[in-house]
Amino acid sequence: MLKYFGVGLSVAACLAFAGCSKVVDAKIERDVSYVVQFSGSDFNVGEAVTSEMPYDPKVNTKGLLLNKALKEHNCDAILLPRYELISKRFGKDVLRITGRKATFKTRRS
After folding, report:
1. β pairing state of 43-54 and 77-86
2. 77 bridge partner residues
3. Strand extents, DSSP E, the chain
4. How far apart are CA 66 and CA 50, in angstroms?
5. Confidence check: pLDDT of 78 > 70
6. d(C-alpha 95, C-alpha 86), whole Å
7. Phi, psi of 95 (to 5 degrees)
8. Beta strand segments in 8-76, E
9. 3-class state of residue 7 by DSSP
10. Is 69 exposed, middle or buried (0-12, 13-18, 19+ CB in 10 A)?
11. 94: pLDDT confidence band, cut at 50, 70 and 90?
12. What's the distance, Cα to Cα, between the start and end of the chain in Å?
């Protein structure tokens, strides 16, 4: 009898610690934008660069193109980016980004 009392007491303790609330709804934001401000003295600004990729209205082509340009030109940011949609008579339309490549200056301690 004492054995069943101990099991019942431990089950009751677990329920007391777990509580009676349950998760009703959870939402994950996918389109969160961040605003970060930098000044020109934070960057080493390089030459103007251009990258292109085929345009697909069903996909976030602007984001993909920006990532491609950063990797292609080995930089941390594209300053003053300008996006152009170039319509092709034959074939797919092309999205082009043009801007100045920039890398962050390293801090010296």
Report:
1. unpaired
2. 102
3. 43-54, 77-86, 94-104
4. 10
5. yes
6. 6
7. -105, 130
8. 43-54
9. helix
10. buried
11. very high
12. 70
